Amino acid sequence: MIEATSSLVLQWFGEDAAFWFDYLTNGKHMAWYASVRFTLFAAVFGAICAVVFGLLGAAARRSGFVPLALIGRVYITMIRGIPDVLFFLFFPLAFEQAVEFFMARQHCPEALATVTGWPPCDAAQWFLTTTDYLLLASVSLGIVYGSFAANVIHGAMDAVPESQLEAARAYGFSERAVFWRFRVRQMWVYALPGLSNVWMLLLKATSFLSLLQIADIVLWAERLGAPNYIARVGLVHPDWRWKYYLVLFLFFILMTYLSEQLFNRLQARASRGMALNN
Asked: I need a labelling partner for 98 at 20 to 30 A (CA). Which of 10, 18, 56, 89 fits?
């Protein structure tokens, strides 16, 4: 298919256009295009985790059980102050070494007493795949940005008119039902503007995937844009990284535009039938 298209480009547009078509559709560039799935997966799965952690954190913060409320307060306050990149590197590494520690206790407990390297023994070695690192990275994003989401959701819950909650109590709903079926249901219209900002921050943070050696769009842009030498040819191209980074720049602008359109639709849907001026 690509060869046939290349022939058509050569026939219609000439050798220069055919050269650039062949260059931009070679194996490495096709791998670059395919790596977009890693960025999108980390963003979507990380956002799902962030919403879940956000709901749990906000619910804990509002709990009447003091230890649980303290946990929610610490989560909302402390995690937001940790640099994203630090937590992004810490959590996967800590989780990996924790798993290897328990594997070592099972397979070679004697090695833990005199450990000089890590893992303590070959049997405790956990070989993570790209998918494993991608899942750990997504959960890391969810934990960090879940704290931001929890803060947004907590404020949105306070914005729900108390009169509507009192009406639900008057109809005999329990406090648990009032919280989950009325306060949580109605708070989305107030939370979505803030959650859209959290999503934008999370989307930008997916550029950290390359720090875990995941071959994402940033890592491929670095590889493809670096000066390329071939022994029998010489310099194929000089440092073109700025050109590839410009493509990433445009990609994230496009994702931002599409995200804004999506959140505008979600906001309109969540606002149906609600009187926001109360």
From this structure: 56
